[in-house]
Structure formats: C-alpha cells, structure tokens
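Predict fold of Sugar ABC transporter substrate-binding protein; 447 aa.
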Amino acid sequence: MRIRTLVAATGALALSLVSGCAQGGAAGSSANTVTYWLWDANQLPAYQACAKGFEKENPGLKVKITQLGWSDYWTKLTAGFIAGTQPDVFTDHIQNFGQYADLKVLEPLDDLGIKDSDYQPGLAANWVGKDGHRYGAPKDWDTVALFYNSRMTKDAGLTAEQLNSLSWNPKDGGTFEKAIARLTIDRNGKRGDEPGFDRNNVKVYGLATNGGGFGDGQTQWSNFAASAGWSYLDKPRWGTKYQYDSKTFQSVVQWYFGLAKKGYMPPLSDYNVQSNQANTQVAAGKAATAFDGAWMISTYAGFKGRDIKTALTPVGPTGKRATMMNGLADSVTKASKNKAGAKKWVAYLASDKCQKVVGGYGVVFPATKAGTEAAVAAYREKGIDVSSFTEPVADKKNFRTFSYPIASYSADMTALMSPAMEDIYGNGKPVSSLDQTNDQINLILSQ
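Predicted 3D structure, encoded as tokens:
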C-alpha cells in the first residue's frame, strides 16, 4: 500500500464538498503532451524508460512525468481536481478509487479493451465501478510477507523451515506467537518465553509495529483476520455493509494488539508513520520481524549489516494462509485536455511492452504475467528470493488472497476506523467499541 496517512482520506472528503466546481484542463497538458503523476521515486526511472518507448511509437506525443511524495501527491491531486490543474493520467490507489469514481472525476476506459485474463487474477476486475465502467488499467500488484532478521532468528534457534511453517489462532497465538515471544528480548537478556521476562523493558521486540492499521490493516492484522475467515464487506466489491462488528474480527484484533500488552510488539506510542515504521524498527535492530509489502523488498534488502529474509504469512484457523493482494492502476482524469493521448499512454502502460521494462528494474511486480516474470528474474539477479510474495498468487489451494475493501465512501471509513483502532491498540478500549464504529460507517454507506 505504500506509506499512508489520513491526508488522502481527508483530501477526498474535502473534494466531495466542491466536486464539479472547477473547469479547465490539466496543468501542462496539451495536444502534444500527456502529463503523468506517480509517487514512488524508486519507480521513476522505469517509467521514464517506458515514456521513451511510447514516444518512439507515437511521434509528436510527449509524456511529462511528475513524481511527488505520497502525502504531497494526494494533497496536490485533490487540489488539482478542485482547481482544474490535475494531470491527464495519474497512478491510482484502490483506497481512493471508490471515492473518485463516485465523484465522477475519472474518465471511463472501456474502449481500451482491458481483459481480466491478461493480468494476474482479480487485478483488472477491481477497477470496474458500480456503474459497470472501467476507470483504471492494471499497473502492478503486491502481497505481504514476514521479513525477518536471519541472525536474530538463528540466535533464537528458529530455522527458515520453522518460520515458513508457523500457524496461529486467536486463543493462544499458536506457534506464531511462540516464535515472536522467543525472538523478544528484554533489557536483561531474558527472552519473551523465559521466566523473569520484563515486558515493560524490552530491548528487541519479536514483531515490529506498523500502527493500528486504519480500516484495512494491510501490513498489520489483515492476514490474520482473513485466515480466520473474515471479510471486510458483505461482497468482494462494492459491498453495502462493513463487518467490523464481527465477533471473529474482534477476536483477531484483541489477540493481535494483545501482543503489545505482552511485550512482544511495540506499544502504539513507539510508532510514527514518518520516522519509525516497521522497516525502521528492523533496520535499527529494535525488532526481529515485520509484516510488510512487496514494495518494500529492496528497502529491506538494502539494510547494511542485516541479513533480511522473508517467510510466508502463518496458517490460520481456516487451514489457509492469507495476504492482501493489492494492485495499483493508471487512471485518466475526466477534465484531461488530451484524452486521446492520455488513453494511448494508459494503454501502453498496461501493455507487456511497458510492464516487462518495469519488471526488469526489480522494484515492483507488474500486473501482466510477463511483467511479473521479468521482475522475478530481476530480483533473482540481485540475489533476492521473492517466493514468499509470489507463492500466494500461484497457490490458491493453500492461500487466500483478498483485495483492499472496495466500496463507496472509503475515505469516511478510513477517517472513522483509524482513531477507533488506535484507541484499542494504544488506549485499551474494548474491541466491542467497533460495533458502534461499524454502525456509523454503514449508515454513511447506506446513503
């Protein structure tokens, strides 16, 4: 999901108040230029290479790429929709798709001929709105795995085979919690599974924290909830009711945040979305493991003095492992001054021609199968094993992959769920409090 704050959510809410007021075209666009925005600096070189290929095939058309940091990106995009200075094409996130589709600021892409079978399963279908029109062309995908410090796991007596065979349940945490406890060390050198362990004075946590998880818990609790059989909504896409009042979900949340109470995971007060994320905790040697997404593979691999490896998410009560499979897309703005050129560019971005180029940079997994294969090969050349991320996509028998919740008013959901989850994690509020939050979200969704 990449780094995230509530900026996107609050921005979308602001947009809902003034949508449709602005007229005019995208800043910098013209009949000869297509403006394109993305947020990931690591991917910029790959898309600059794609732009060169596109321009060669389309003489007279130029692509102007702008890269912005995550928070600035969504703030500026929202302001652009209001002021009429939005780009022709932008990298879209499923988190904001529902809101933008409802606000009618996206151009339908039905004429691009996007086929589900051309991409990894589910990616293309996620970008079809409630009205049946397509608003995004599949770009890339990611799953979640357990990154771990191999030196710390070895010192704890845990092998790679054991880490890939962990299971969990909400009653006692199973072998997963035992492993996390074993990896936790207090200031006196006592491990979390040893007598005398001081949970209030921890030197190394067994599991890093990525905060409360908003309403999706992508790199926090989502794999546990899904492997327990829970789903965000009553339908996979465009559901009408959220299910945060589920007893199954609430038992998962109570167990997961309970790891912090036991001293195995940092308290919420130790987490900062800008400066102390899970990867920072692992890099500093303050945590032995972390659930994180495929977009972070190169980051973890680059930690000096840390031999970081990955393991599959643990098996849950359903007998399956689970991971969110998120996917980005490229969308054309409704107010684009160069819709013909923009659609040509999006079609090129979604093709094997571009996606194989992007895969070759070994930064993300492109949406097409050929693009994914190119990425796997590129990672292999770097000496990085990415099977913990690709296996869930290939093995449907033993894995459940699921999408970020796709529904209207997603910004409102996030705005309500973020403080609710932080209250449970940081302030000890009972999980039953989610009943009221769920009612509030569903009331908005029913409008």
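The radius of gyration is 22 Å.
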